[in-house]
Design goal:
Elements (H helix, E strand, L loop, with lengths): L2 E3 L6 E3 L1 E4 L15 H13 L4 E3 L8 H9 L9 E6 L14 H15 L4 E6 L8 H13 L3 E7 L3 H14 L6 E3 L13 H8 L2 E2 L17 H5 L1 H7 L2 H17 L3 H10 L7 E3 L4 H9 L7 H8 L22
Parallel strand pairs: 3-4, 3-10, 4-5, 5-6, 6-7, 7-8, 8-9
Antiparallel strand pairs: 1-2
Helix pairs in contact: 3-4, 4-5, 9-10, 9-12
Length: 329
């Protein structure tokens, strides 16, 4: 396993980050693995050198944090990099969501309790909250760092201008700035390469993409449970351009003697500015295949065969509710 600095910080993280959305409770989503099914692959990830674990309170509405932390209880906490996130509604309570000072404080305390730890290495906001003043959110995050409950802060899923503005508010007030941006990036969705990733590279902010397989589209298995039951897969990647890109990934992978999933992951790892890529795995076999992708090199000709099908599209985040179908080249 390779390790790199998390942006300009001195923190070392593995080039692959274990996403935990697939672990927790199948009652939340049918493709989520329960504790008994989760433990083997979670422990194998750490045994193979992955030290970067990505949680969120919203995953299985808290059950994911509990299940994964239990599976990791036999490992030394200080050797693992715990990341968790807050923003999405955790109950029907009107204040149990968003980025208010109250919800951020409640969220970190609840996550620490579920994770059975007194700190997380990285605490992230899961999205931008237009109903809360930026100053309130950034001051709350700063106070969490001062309290020792988080060592670094980060953000996910927003427009580049929102992220830059939040960072600037923190900077001018002498508060903690963001060390990480977790954005969606894959061969079928590259809009973050226009503004978000260049901004992060300029500021020394780590980029940790999620969904390298485009929610399963680039896995080569269109009939998987995740692809057939995840409502966001078709919403975000149901257009002809995405299908053409998936076909190109499959063609190149076959010619190269690797799987579509491995090639899609290697594509993300090779992008400028990318620090560590989140992976979602269900089996140890999938885990080992993902780790093997670290050694895959993609030639310029192979990149061209994949990238030539891409056409611009609207940004994927919580603030774009209607997808505009894009036309193939």
């Amino acid at each position: 396993m390779d390790y790199v600095n998390l942006g300009r910080s001195g923190l070392k993280v593995s080039r692959l980050c274990l996403g935990t959305m697939t672990f927790g409770s199948s009652k939340w989503r049918p493709w989520v693995l329960d504790e008994k099914q989760s433990s083997g692959v979670i422990q194998a990830s750490v045994d193979r050198g992955i030290n970067f674990i990505d949680f969120a309170d919203f995953y299985s509405i808290g059950a994911s944090e509990e299940v994964v932390a239990k599976c990791l209880s036999g490992y030394q906490r200080q050797q693992l990099i715990y990341t968790t996130k807050c923003f999405y509604a955790m109950s029907q309570d009107v204040n149990d969501k968003g980025l208010s000072r109250k919800h951020i404080f409640d969220s970190i305390d609840n996550s620490l309790r579920r994770l059975k730890t007194d700190y997380v290495d990285l605490f992230m906001i899961h999205a931008f909250d237009p109903s809360t003043p930026i100053e309130e959110t950034m001051r709350a995050l700063y106070d969490i760092v001062l309290a020792g409950k988080a060592r670094y802060i980060g953000a996910s899923t927003m427009f580049a201008w929102q992220f830059a503005k939040m960072n600037e508010v923190a900077r001018v007030n002498g508060w903690t700035t963001f060390s990480v941006m977790q954005c969606q990036l894959n061969a079928a969705y590259r809009e973050e390469e226009r503004e978000m990733i260049p901004y992060c590279m300029h500021e020394g902010i780590a980029v940790t993409p999620f969904s390298p397989l485009a929610r399963g589209l680039l896995s080569g298995n269109a009939d998987s449970l995740r692809n057939s039951s995840d409502q966001f897969t078709n919403f975000q990647y149901g257009d002809e351009v995405s299908r053409q890109i998936a076909a190109a990934v499959n063609r190149v992978a076959l010619a190269k003697g690797v799987t579509s999933s491995q090639l899609a992951l290697a594509w993300v790892l090779a992008r400028k500015g990318v620090t560590s890529t989140l992976i979602g795995v269900e089996t140890v076999e999938q885990l080992d295949a993902n780790i093997a992708a670290l050694d895959i090199e993609i030639s310029e000709q192979e990149l061209f065969e994949i990238d030539r099908h891409y056409t611009p599209c609207d940004v994927i985040n919580d603030y774009v509710e209607t997808r505009i179908s894009r036309d193939p080249r």
